[in-house]
Amino acid sequence: MSSIFITGATSGFGAATARRFAKDGWSIVITGRREDRLHALAEELSGQAKVLPLVLDVQDRAAVEAAVAGLPEEFNQLRALVNNAGLALGNTPAQSCDLDDWDTMVDTNIKGMLYCTRLLLPRLIAHGAGAGIVNLGSVAGDYPYPGSHVYGATKAFLKQFSLSLRSDLLGTGVRVTNIEPGLSESEFSVVRFGGDKAKADAVYAGTEPLTPDDIAESIHWALNQPKHVNINRIQLMATCQAFSNFNIHRNS
Ligand code: NDP
Ligand code: 8X3
């Protein structure tokens, strides 16, 4: 039986990924901070798959250590880790934003991902060929935009760390994929704008953004390639999103 550990499964991409793998009957560890959401999802999927809801703040290294150490045997044969928990906070210019928001983004998007990866790697290596890690990067890790500063930099870290991991894991059979979506509708913008739903809705107004199911499908595809195939990176955007020219400040 294959098992998968998903961080940030209480919403958006993580919940959609749990639903996608439940269809295939994988054993699924769903994690996040909102316990009620985890239990509701576990209940929803209970007829399809074995699901373990685990309340976990990935910023808390001791909690990640305890969660990994306490994984029940049936979820121990880990084949996949999806480092999805993450967030952007604010989009004001670097010179006026809140330093606490920067701490939270670094602690969640980078350090949380590192804790889960390092602590679960031995189990993925024990599984060997066919195992895989998927990290949730972003187009913001490649392309800067005003207000992307630390968020974009955390995602650039994920991209480089994913590639570096591949070098170290050579010969173990464990694959690593960085998935880098653009505009996608979830709770992401509500979180980014501190719960301001109207501001979040405005981000998607008049667009057809990517959906959590689109991302879950990419994750599922990457992890289900033949054992000899490693998808290094997937960058995907909504068709309605594209690139723009550089901004130039003019004196007059
Ligand atoms: P959502 O806000 O819908 O989901 C984010 C998930 O992360 C939630 O389940 C949340 O759970 C979890 N999370 C946040 N902080 C923590 C924490 N400290 N510990 C554990 N879990 C945490 O956003 P998305 O589904 O859209 O985003 C998922 C990932 O994809 C993120 O890494 C995001 O940066 C990335 N991404 C999103 C894009 C978008 O446009 N939506 C585009 C590109 C990448 P809880 O609050 O219950 O802890
Ligand atoms: C989220 C996509 O463009 O809002 O990672 O940064 S974007």
From TrEMBL:
PANTHER family: ALCOHOL DEHYDROGENASE
Highest taxon of source: Bacteria
A matching Pfam family: adh_short
Keyword Acyltransferase: no
UniProtKB keywords: Oxidoreductase
Residues annotated as domain Ketoreductase: 2-182
Family note: Belongs to the short-chain dehydrogenases/reductases (SDR) family.
The protein's name in its UniProt record: SDR family oxidoreductase
Organism classification: Bacteria, Pseudomonadati, Pseudomonadota, Gammaproteobacteria, Pseudomonadales
